Amino acid sequence: MTERPTANWRHGRAKEAEELAAGTLDPECACMAALFPDELLKATDAVLDTFEGEVRRLGEAEDEQVLAVVERVVLALNAVNDAHGRGAYETGEREQLCDYIDRSLTEHGVDIVALTARHGLGRYELTDEWRTW
User: Which residues contact 130 (CB under 8 A, 6 or more apart)?
Assistant: First the structure.
């Protein structure tokens, strides 16, 4: 399965911590721990755990089933974002999450281009109907 955005965020936190420890980063410039607190990472991973389980069970699913899985993951990520002051997922994080959803579905045989076209959506509008982050 494609790498989760949270793995990338954890890597960024670890790299920043190393730079701080080595004295190569001014502490005033450090932001990763504040941007990606443990609670946010854990909550996001819990949502992605559920999503991955649902994606694995899709098989030869109809569009409505695929869209229902997308809706559930997006609404769950909305709830995580809301619980973190509606600022948990900024532009970069949003793009990573949408790409992760797209790649995960594609890896399990969902033709995103065809799916979105059948529903009058642009290629990158799969999550837009439900997403508030």
Answer: 70, 71, 74, 75, 78
